[in-house]
Specification:
mainly alpha
Length: 106
């Protein structure tokens, strides 16, 4: 849930004329405002995690939970590289390769 909440925050703060939500369901939810977007996103995540958690003793359930965490980690890394230069600010450096990579993501 924490990874989903972080993704929702980064999505709401970075969606502009240049960037957009890739997921068509969540793109539609953004039309209804930030509260509706967050409620739908977190609600769907909760239901999905609950179903996978209830089947956590099954091999497929464990694989689904692990896959969801891995995907969310990659999404957050993408957000961190593209959102307000947070990685550069954290590292205290801004190289030409970093600038080129960030501009490619945006």
């Amino acid at each position: 849930m924490a990874l989903s909440a972080a993704d929702a925050y980064f999505t709401m703060t970075s969606v502009t004329d240049v960037t957009h939500e890739i997921n068509p369901l969540m793109r539609t939810a953004l039309v209804f405002g930030p509260f509706a977007f967050a409620a739908i996103k977190l609600g769907l995540t909760f239901v999905s995690a609950a179903v996978l958690g209830l089947h956590g003793t099954w091999t497929l359930g464990r694989a689904g939970l692990l896959s969801a965490v891995v995907v969310y980690v990659f999404i957050l890394v993408y957000h961190l590289y593209g959102h307000a230069g947070l990685i550069q600010a954290f590292l205290g450096t801004e190289t030409s390769a970093t600038v080129a990579f960030v501009s490619m993501l945006q």
